[in-house]
Amino acid sequence: MSNTPDNSQLAAQLEQIQQLIQERGANDAIREKAFDQLYEELKQYKEDFLFQAEKPLLLDLLLFYDSLNWFHESLVKQEMSPDVIADSFQYLIDEFIEVLYRRDVLPIEESGAFDRKVHKAVKVVNTDNPEQDYQIAQVLKRGFQRASKLLRPEEVVIARHGQK
């Protein structure tokens, strides 16, 4: 007897291999479809999560938008005296600060002395008083922090003694 397989055995083995390849291909297609579906579900969960996380802030901003619109319409109609305009504008600033407070964003506490950790010196003015050296002469932009972490440094003008 010979150890070489005959044609019928080769044909049977070839058919078996083809069947395994087809099954593997079908399994791969099913797996790929399952991964695609899982990916889409994860994408939807992510989008829903982000929407739910952003929704309170967006609603606060829409309320602020309504206040800005009211203020604009009042200015266009010239219904307000200069004092009422100033009070209304201050109300808008206070309302916006409230939106920031709700997000745990707080203005940096006022300080007379320059602190590199929370201040950014954008201008220097000379002073003859040595006690005013490195003191804040003017705040140009308020600084803000969130959860005790600096979001934006306060932009300030500092006084320097002995500068030329």
Return the string of H and E elements: HHEEEEEE
The chain-level mean pLDDT equals 89
Find the structural class using helix and strand composition.
alpha+beta
Annotation, overall tally of beta strands:
6
Low-pLDDT regions: none
Q: What does the largest sheet look like? A: 3 strands, antiparallel
% residues in beta strands:
15-25%
- The outline comes out as elongated
Q: Could you characterize the architecture of this molecule?
A:
- The structure is a single chain.
- The chain is of the alpha+beta class and 164 residues long.
- The protein has two domains: 103 residues; 58 residues, Head domain of nucleotide exchange factor GrpE (Nucleotide Exchange Factor Grpe, Chain A, domain 2, Roll), CATH 2.30.22.
- Helices cover 56% and strands 21% of the residues.
- It contains two helices and six strands.
- The strands form two sheets. The chain has a three-stranded antiparallel β-sheet with strand order 1-4-5. A three-stranded mixed β-sheet has the order 2-6-3, with no helix packed on it.
- Helix 1 packs antiparallel against helix 2.
- The longest helix has 71 residues.
